[in-house]
Amino acid sequence: xxxxxxxxxxxxxxxxxxxxxxxxxxKAKYPEDEISEALKRLIDRKFQSDDKFFDSRLRQLxxxxxxxxxxxxxxxxxxxxxxxxxxQEILQELGLGETLxxxxxxxxxxxxxxxxIQRLVGELDLGRFEDRKKIEEKLVRFLLSKGYTPSQSFxxxxxxVDQLKL
Length: 166
Fold this sequence. Notes:
mainly alpha
């Protein structure tokens, strides 16, 4: 299979950044000049665009309820330039707004309904400060692992616990 055929096959399966395609073709042991030519042909024919990759990857990660930090890290790994304006536009298109409040609330509700948290709630007295903090800390760690900032995580968890979602 030629380098061009391989590049076309890879890009046809899903959008890739230029860097990802380059890495996959290098791993397949194609010469550097063939890789450059294949990437140039893909770009010239509008089969590959880092802007298009940014949009599709961003939508995919937002649908997974990833937070801004984790999304930025993913884009950095794919060597795609961060586009804050496009990020805000897509947030608006998806109805998520600047605060990302809805995805955080959904994640908290999902985590609270998990058996692990339900078991923990059953063992603890939520009226006690120490027990309440244990649950808050667990929920905050969960949100941090999803890529939300500490301030977003703490605020959302406080609201959830105060509204007695537990």
